[in-house]
Structures are given as structure tokens and as C-alpha cells.
């Protein structure tokens, strides 16, 4: 759980930084996307590693949840949640929401199974126009809202998960645990802001479409 969680957290941050290139303009984002598409072997290697981590992470989460329930078949008469944060108590829920989002995200931006009207766009250099696809997609309120809600769930998941993975690796110390908790919350907020600012900017019209400047 810790190792796969660490790998997936790293991917989330790197993916976010790549997506934020949209604020550098259409050419910058499309160049980045084209580079990834051309690096076929590297791209598929990354996909296989990430898919493996994702499946293992989910599988272990289910197994651990079932083991915990089996160890305590009867619920507490009075739940003591003073020490447990909302993020820690909703890890399974936010994880499932994130799983649903990943499937939807792949259908949207990778396989063109969702919103295909925004997918088949070409820029002036003959590249896949990822910039226009993103801007047009997020100008659709339901799409933008769905992404932002998913980012909120992911932020909650990370705000507890990052702290937990360090504890699972044995890096738990009274002196450093409070700092890890703050760092974990900071990672969640960073991901929430970094990924949500894109749909907000698109929906508000701050990122212009090519040709009409609006």
C-alpha cells in the first residue's frame, strides 16, 4: 500500500505539472502532449507500471478493509472518532470516487469514448490539439464540476494517505508525525488547487480559444 501509494502520488504531482503548461499557451501544451505521444515505448512502460500500481493499491485496500472488518465483526456501540480525521474515515469512499474519475478521465482524454466532439481537433502544426480539447471540455459546466469534485475527493484521499504511507514505512516519530500530517494536508491542497485552477480558468474564459481570442 505504501509503495504503490508513493508511486501514484508522484505520478499525480508530475501529471499536474504537465497539465499546468496550459497556462503557457496552446503551443506549449500541444508540444508537451505530442512529445508524450511520440515516446511510445516510454509512454506504454509508464502506463503499465501505473496500472500495476493502481490495481495493487486497490486490491490491497480491499483486502485490508475486509481483514479489519473480520477482526471486528461487531461495530462499536459508540464510535470514538476524536482522533480520526474526516479524511481518514472516508478513505474507501474517496478512493472509489478517484477510481471512477480515473476511468472517466481515460474515456475522455485518452480513448475518446466520452465527449468525442472535443477530441478530434488538430492544431496548425498537425498535432493533436489538446489545448482546445481541454478548454472546450471545461467550458461545459457539468464536465468542469465533475472534475473539480473528483479533485476534492483526491485531495481528501492524499491528505491522509501521504501521512499514512510514511507511517507504514516505519517513519513514525512523535517529533516528526505532526510535520508529516501538515505536509500530507499540504499535498492534498496543492493537488486540489493545481488541478482545479485549470477547469476554473477554462470555464471563466481566462484561457482563449485559437482563432477567436475568446
In words, what does this structure look like?
This protein is mainly alpha-helical and 214 residues long. It has one domain (2-72, 88-203): Fumarate reductase/succinate dehydrogenase, transmembrane subunit (3 helical TM bundles of succinate and fumarate reductases, Up-down Bundle). It has helices at residues 2-19, 26-38, 40-71, 86-89, 91-109, 130-138, 141-168, 177-203. Helix 1 (2-19) packs antiparallel against helix 7 and helix 7 (141-168) packs antiparallel against helix 8 (177-203). The mean pLDDT is 88.
- Work out the count of structural domains: 1
CATH homologous superfamily classification: Fumarate reductase/succinate dehydrogenase, transmembrane subunit
| Regions with little confidence, pLDDT below 50 for 5+ residues | none
The secondary-structure element order is: HHHHHHHH
CATH structural class: Mainly Alpha
Number of strands: 0
CATH topology: 3 helical TM bundles of succinate and fumarate reductases
| Structural class computed from helices and strand pairing | mainly alpha
Number of helices: 8
What fraction of the residues are assigned to beta strands by DSSP?
A: under 5%
Termini separation comes to: 45 Å
- Helical content, roughly? over 70%
Q: Do you know the CATH architecture? A: Up-down Bundle
Rounded radius of gyration (Å): 20 Å
**Major β-sheet profile:** none
Overall average pLDDT: 88
Shape: elongated
